[in-house]
Design goal:
Largest sheet: none
Radius of gyration: 19 Å
Number of helices: 4
Strand content: under 5%
Order of helices and strands: HHHH
Structural class: mainly alpha
Bound molecules: zinc ion
Length: 121
């Protein structure tokens, strides 16, 4: 990847990193909330636990992406970015534009998802 493009790419990842860090931090804060369930009726309690689960899921997903973003940033620092980790082909610009932390080219990503589906039964 060319130097100017690499810088652009890194900026994008850093922006994403910032957004996610804030999001994960907020979700964790909200999920812990200082509320007291004992003062609420059962309907409220159910809603509260539903929200907690939802936020937990959300922050888990965000945390996973955050990890991908961090490893992509590390790869940039190592000067090795934009190539598929599976087949070594260059990942298309369009794909990197949408998913700057993509580790695989579109063909390999499909194969991996296919394998995951097959493994899951
Ligand atoms: Zn590939």
């Amino acid at each position: 990847m060319r130097k100017d493009r690499l810088a652009q790419f890194k900026k994008k990842l850093e922006e994403k990193h910032r957004q996610l860090s804030e999001g994960v931090g907020k979700a964790a804060l909200y999920a812990k909330g200082p509320e007291d369930d004992s003062t609420k009726d059962l309907g409220d309690q159910a809603a509260t636990s539903y929200n907690r689960e939802f936020l937990f899921e959300l922050s888990n997903g965000d945390r996973r992406v955050l990890k991908e973003v961090v490893s992509a940033l590390q790869k940039i620092d190592g000067g090795d970015v934009g190539d598929c980790e599976r087949c070594g082909e260059a990942i298309s610009d369009k794909r990197l534009e949408a998913l700057p932390f993509a580790r695989y080219c579109i063909a390999c990503q499909r194969l991996i998802e296919e394998e995951a589906r097959t493994a899951a039964g």
